Structure formats: structure tokens, C-alpha cells
Amino acid sequence: xxxxxxxxxxxxxxxxxxxxxxxxxxxxxxxxxxxxxxxxxxxxxxxxxxxxxxxxxxxxxxxxxxxxxxxxxxxxxxxxxxxxxxxxxxxxxxxxxxxxxxx
Length: 103
Fold this sequence. Notes:
By secondary structure, this protein is an all-alpha fold. 69% of the residues lie in helices and 0% in strands. It is built from three helices and no strands. It has helices spanning 2-23, 28-49, 55-81. The chain starts with a helix and ends in a 22-residue tail after the last helix.
């Protein structure tokens, strides 16, 4: 079980780092900083609410965040990364003239 959790975490982190690097190639440091800040805030929130919520409610919250996170990941993967060639990312690299194009 521990091996599978570690393997899933490594696959998830590889995908997230790859997408962040591709989408924010011009401003990579703030993108990674925001990613790690969001993870730290989520860990702090879980540390705070865990003594106050029973296990079934914690699992319900975890499941809801799992569905929300999966939907957001699929949306970013489909919308931002897999755009047709020649179509620029107007929201992501708006201040650069040479915005990368992904195929």
C-alpha cells in the first residue's frame, strides 16, 4: 500500500511539474512558489480541522477535494496544454510577445 501511494504521488508531481513548466515557461519561479504555497495551506488546514472532525467527515471532505482536483487537472490538461498549433495562451503568457505554442 505504501509503495502504491508513493508511486501515485511521484506520477502526480511529475505531471504537475511538467504542466507548470510548460505553461509558465517565462515565469516559472512564481508558478512553483504558488504551487507549494497552495500545498502548504492545504496541509495546514488539514492539520487544523483533523482533531475537530470525525473520520467519516474527513473522508467526505477528502473525496470532494479529490473530485474537484481531478476535474481541475483534466480541464487544465485539455484546455491549456492541448490547444491547436498556432493558438496562443492569452491568459497565461499575456505579457510576452513570444508566447509558446503547444501541439
